[in-house]
Amino acid sequence: MHVGMLKEGIGVSPCTGRTLMGMDGRTTLLIVGIAAALAQPAGKPAASAPLPAPAAEVARDFLFAFARNDRDAIQGMLPRRLENLYGPCPFDRMPEVVKPRVDTRTGAVDLRGKMTDPGLPSKGTMILRLVEEDGVRAWRVRQVYWYTDLPPEADIPDASPTAADRRQEPALREAAIRFVSAWLGKDYQAMDRLTFHWWEVPRKPPKWVTMKRADLTGRPTTLDGLRVDFVAHLTMARIVPKEIHGNLWLVQEEGEWRVRPLTFTFLF
Q1: In angstroms, what CA-CA distances link 145 with 6, 26, 82, 223, 264?
Q2: What is 3-86+203-267's CATH topology?
């Protein structure tokens, strides 16, 4: 099982900035979500939960907007209150934050700890982006995901390749700890300051990917809101069919269903 924060969109690997998965040997792209290429959930099927029709409509609209990189539509479906935007922390205490590594503007740390939802695995990785704010460079959290097995094609830094990258490792680890500490303490304003808001970054629509439909299933969760598992049916390069499995979390706010962007993931 993989549960995590959303990647930046469709078209380019958010970990390295490289395009992946060759189409014609020259044109390449990748559907990206929580990890660049993650295995589908294994084990016995999860129990289902009721999925109200209005929630299903919002979930589908969000998936279609994400597939075409429509950031304006995505922002219109996000919770307005920070406590709903981020939701409860999936850890019940501070996890171990280990193996920091940096590759230029992208960093990763591994997380090990007990989860509040028994259906979630205890292994995870946090991806951070190096940004510049008021002339000062700082690490901001772009996503967190949890998994049982990580396939070799997942596009995540394995190690810091240069001395300059290695010098960034302490700051990277400290940024990850500050983010989880704020999450555990329900300090959503601090979390928001420490987050890379991918949904505010414009992206061009993908040229070679079309989403045809999405099959949805409601799932029970202890993390508040409503978990929705999906199977997105895509067409690659106009002729190649592909199914993407994933999940997202919805929460009701002022009578409307809204999508938490940092707990949305594609599972490849």
Answers
A1: 9, 30, 20, 14, 9
A2: Nuclear Transport Factor 2; Chain: A, (3.10.450)
